[in-house]
Amino acid sequence: MTFPERFQNLPEYAFPRLRSLLGDLKPGGEPIQMTIGEPRHPFPAWVTQIIADHADGFGRYPPNDGTPELLDAMSAWLGRRYGVPVGPDRVMALNGTREGLMNTLIALCPEQKAGGTPVVLVPNPFYQVYAVAALTVGAQPRYVPATAATGFLPDYAALPRDVLDRTAIAWICSPANPQGAVASRDYLRTLIGLAEKHDFRILADECYSVIWRTAPPPGILEVAHQMGADPERIVAFHSLSKRSNLPGLRCGLVTAGPQSMVRIRKLRAYAGAPLPLPLQRAAEKVWADEAHVTANRALYAEKFAVADQVFQGHQGCAAPEGGFFLWLPVDDDEAATVRLWTETGVKVLPGSYLSREVDGFNPGKGYVRVALVAQKDEVQRGLTRLRDCLMT
Ligand SMILES: Cc1ncc(COP(=O)(O)O)c(C=O)c1O
Description:
single chain; 3-stranded antiparallel sheet; 12 strands; 7-stranded mixed sheet
């Protein structure tokens, strides 16, 4: 039997890699998990009751795109968040954003661009499904450094013209996982201008859009709307996982131009895994409620303050502009991760597990990613131990 070539160079996923790295090594203190971006604040308590009230829905196949009520709630949320009218016909429910990121690229990436294999621009480091989706359709991922030198966002405008001409899709993640950088309105305007000039689509992953420090991050939808850009060029993704501490509910959304939505819906009608009906009923109420989101943000604000206080005087360690990860500079990511675990029991993720080496340079190698998801006291203990172990 043969196996596909296109996934041959795919590294093991980050978390199994971390397990292999740490193997049987014993923690040097009470274990503190700061690896995975799994929110640990409480989700709204009323969610459970809604699921129970609609449990008979487990006996039915759910509507593929989302119930009309859920689509209305998502569309209303986009309107509130970005001040842009996005009708329910331009929204679809996802079984978690991750599958939507994958399926949307499959639905929208053409076989050819400018007479050759299409290029998919991927910020480096990045949320891993971006590259796998590109490989799945036989496109060529182009990993573009998103380092301190570029404000931790990819400088797509600096790419050679022939690469941009062959680009079919550009991924952007803002607030960025893992660096926490937020794309400004100017950045997004430039990116949309570039997409118009070179005729590519932008797939904007904005899953962390409501977890911010000082001001709500601008969204691609509002900037595109202000510019009068072709809505078919822009696709945006959001998630209840981070917004509402419901990673297990598996509810995200995708919004795109009308023709793109037709393509996305059609593909997902064949291959998608719709959200079970009782969960759609709960999700509908969660998207409609902002009080828990505000309370959630306040909990992160407390932890951002803790991070700033712990790392006072340490350059490059400030709390993120958005999202809930610290992207901390270290000499060697794997060595630092092993040392931290064996000396203190704090577990973090090596940065290079989220990035690719290109021309001998791996932009994640000098960083570890630290998730600020635990309760404040635990975060304080974890960060203090990390600082004392790695930075003094
Ligand atoms: C940048 C980014 N996009 C998408 C996702 C997927 O979110 P969901 O739980 O909605 O699938 C994550 C989850 O960690 C993420 O960090």
